[in-house]
């Protein structure tokens, strides 16, 4: 069989030119040209080389460049550009639920496309579902140079294109104005931007004037440019208002509905800025913005039916606020100085003392005769009360830290807070602080839990005349913590997930309390105002506003841990939890029940090692999941920081003890480290 010849090279060899009137032939030419750049699926790393070779080929053969310009213009002037400019890459204003349903429906049966639609042409050219990956990998700068090379420009010489641009601008303007009158926006808009100064309404009026002047051929370009300048300023105010509403969500909270509306408005305003740049009659275009549009459209067309893509985009800011709440709290769990380090140990010791009583009460509750569900329920209440007590006393439970410190670490990479690249060395210092803080809390918990639980078991035996757990039950308690004679390490991973989930719940509830203004609604409640003194009601409202999220997280964690083993028994599956402090307490109870004279010390050493392994997996799973969510919610791509692991390893080799305990004298570099 003959090797198929690329159409670009075939035209060059035969000296043929692309006709601007033959749209199909021009399309085939563009498909062939993109095929010269497209790398193989397994060779995406070679895309820069292939792109450079193709551009060099174009420079060497002016005929190819002329054909390429003609082929592009043939598609632009003979296609409907409005769907591309108003819809592609922009979420339709139909609500998150309906958008999700539409994507799910089209995933199984794709929507029919109009051959005259420019998006249809893009799907013909970039037909592989992975094309967006290498398009993004090439980056904005290379696409800018490419578009400048082929001479992409939109001027009054192409009235067909300009008319479509103006129509698209008018459509987007109306949609922005409509979103601007939604309750989630108007109720939070500051007084200086209320009507008649609402920029979302003002921009629509200006767009209408621009449309009228552009469509009147006798109007001069100076008149259009004057209006375009005014519209540009109003669009900047719209962006400013959107950002203000988004910034306020840190304190006031947000909802999925408000998040979705702000997300849509931002998309539409960005597209309007580009369209205004094309329609303003100044013969220039922001090529960087155009390249961004091109990259975004290719990604959207390749991923337009992706459920994961939609959920990731629209819930990003909501997850960001939840992660921010956790990140702020996480900073208190990170120690920088020896004083803070020993304060952490002291705080963890108090937390360990509370867990000792939780473990004793849990075993006492196990003696009650009741149905399995009610056993799980009373276990859950016992755990919840213990966790709430730890929160209220300001003490520390080691395994509660990772879900919060992970967000604090991720904030060091947050590209939304600064345009400067993150300091990876300072991030390595932050990781060392998290490591030693976690070790400090483990030490504080365990040095209390092991001996005090043993002491409480001895006091119970002394008071009641019999041990809390018999020898058979004691042997079972030890076996349950053994690293290879039980599924304790697997169950420890379950606990890590529940710790992460409870942190998400805490952040979500706190966000809803802030957004719903629960404190104000409580103080103004008609029944509570008449039945409680104003000072007491104010204290209750302040407490709910400050501790509501933490209460929800602690109670949910208590029920996750209390019901897990019962669920496993009900369904007959190996499903349970192992929590380091509770496992340490059970180890002490088991050791007392068996007695030192009957103890196999090698076996006990393995059990203690199992408890430490449980703690490690509690931390690893919880921290990893929380860090992943925090990173994704901030739009951070870890692949952009390949040097971080090397920096972290070099820091560990030079300062290994920093990961275990703080230095007596902090270096100047560490003092400036940010969390």
Automatic annotation (TrEMBL):
- Pfam families the UniProt entry points to: SpecificRecomb
Q: Where are the transmembrane segments?
A: 341-361, 442-460, 489-509, 551-571, 603-631
Stored InterPro entries = Aquaporin-like, Site-sp_rcmbase
* UniProt keyword Membrane present: yes
Alphabetic keyword roster: Membrane, Transmembrane, Transmembrane helix
GO CC aspect terms: membrane
Specify the protein's topology with respect to the membrane: Multi-pass membrane protein
The record's subcellular location field reads:
Membrane
Name the record gives this protein: Recombinase
């Amino acid at each position: 069989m003959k090797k198929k010849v690329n159409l670009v090279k075939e035209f060059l060899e035969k000296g043929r030119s692309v006709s601007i009137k033959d749209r199909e032939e021009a399309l085939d030419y563009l498909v062939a040209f993109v095929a010269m750049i497209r790398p193989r699926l397994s060779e995406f790393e070679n895309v820069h080389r292939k792109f450079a070779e193709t551009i060099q080929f174009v420079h060497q053969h002016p005929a190819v460049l002329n054909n390429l310009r003609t082929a592009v213009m043939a598609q632009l002037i003979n296609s409907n550009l409005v769907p591309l400019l108003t819809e592609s890459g922009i979420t339709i204003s139909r609500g998150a639920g309906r958008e999700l349903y539409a994507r799910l429906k089209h995933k199984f049966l794709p929507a029919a496309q109009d051959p005259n639609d420019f998006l249809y042409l893009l799907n013909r050219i970039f037909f592989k579902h992975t094309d967006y990956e290498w398009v993004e990998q090439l980056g904005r700068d290379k696409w800018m140079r490419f578009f400048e090379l082929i001479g992409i420009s939109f001027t009054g010489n192409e009235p067909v294109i300009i008319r479509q641009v103006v129509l698209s601008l008018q459509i987007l303007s109306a949609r922005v104005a409509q979103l601007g009158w939604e309750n989630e926006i108007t109720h939070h808009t500051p007084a200086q931007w209320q009507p008649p100064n609402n920029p979302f309404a003002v921009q629509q009026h200006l767009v209408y004037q621009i449309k009228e002047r552009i469509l009147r051929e006798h109007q001069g370009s100076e008149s259009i440019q004057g209006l375009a300048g005014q519209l540009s300023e109003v669009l900047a105010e719209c962006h400013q208002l959107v950002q203000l509403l988004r910034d306020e969500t840190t304190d006031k909270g947000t909802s999925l509905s408000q998040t979705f509306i702000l997300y849509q408005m931002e998309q539409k305003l960005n597209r309007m800025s580009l369209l205004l740049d094309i329609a303003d009659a100044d013969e220039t275009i922001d090529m960087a913005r155009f390249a961004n549009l091109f990259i975004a459209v290719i990604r959207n067309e390749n991923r337009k039916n992706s459920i994961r893509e939609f959920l990731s985009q629209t819930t990003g800011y909501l997850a960001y606020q939840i992660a921010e709440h956790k990140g702020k709290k996480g900073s208190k769990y990170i120690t920088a100085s020896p004083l803070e380090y020993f304060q952490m140990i002291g705080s963890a010791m108090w937390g360990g003392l509370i867990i000792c009583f939780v473990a004793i009460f849990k075993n006492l509750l196990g003696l009650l005769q009741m149905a399995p569900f009610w056993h799980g329920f009373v276990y859950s209440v016992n755990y919840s009360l213990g966790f709430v007590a730890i929160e209220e006393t300001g003490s520390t439970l080691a395994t509660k830290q990772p879900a919060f410190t992970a967000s604090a670490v991720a904030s060091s990479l947050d590209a939304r807070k600064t345009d400067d690249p993150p300091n990876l060395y300072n991030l390595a210092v932050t990781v060392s602080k998290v490591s030693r803080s976690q070790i400090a809390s483990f030490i504080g918990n365990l040095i209390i839990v092991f001996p005090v639980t043993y002491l409480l078991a001895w006091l119970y035996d002394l008071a009641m005349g019999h041990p809390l757990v018999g020898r058979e039950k004691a042997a079972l308690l030890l076996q349950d913590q053994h690293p290879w004679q039980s599924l304790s390490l697997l169950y420890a991973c379950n606990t890590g997930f529940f710790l992460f989930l409870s942190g998400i719940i805490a952040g979500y509830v706190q966000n809803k309390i802030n957004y719903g203004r629960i404190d104000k609604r409580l103080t103004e409640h008609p029944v509570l105002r008449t039945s409680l003194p104003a000072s007491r009601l104010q204290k209750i409202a302040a407490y709910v506003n400050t501790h509501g999220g933490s209460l929800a997280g602690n109670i949910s964690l208590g029920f996750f841990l209390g019901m897990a083993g019962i669920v496993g028994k009900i369904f007959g599956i190996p499903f349970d939890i192992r929590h380091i402090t509770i496992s340490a307490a059970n180890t002490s109870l088991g050791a007392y029940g068996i007695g030192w004279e009957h103890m196999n010390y090698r076996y006990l050493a393995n059990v203690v090692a199992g408890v430490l392994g449980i703690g490690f997996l509690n931390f690893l799973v919880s921290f990893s999941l929380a860090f992943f969510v925090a990173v994704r919610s901030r739009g951070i791509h870890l692949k952009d920081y390949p040097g971080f692991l090397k920096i972290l390893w070099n820091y560990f080799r030079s300062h290994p003890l920093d990961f275990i305990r703080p230095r007596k004298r902090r270096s100047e570099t560490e003092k400036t480290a940010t969390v």
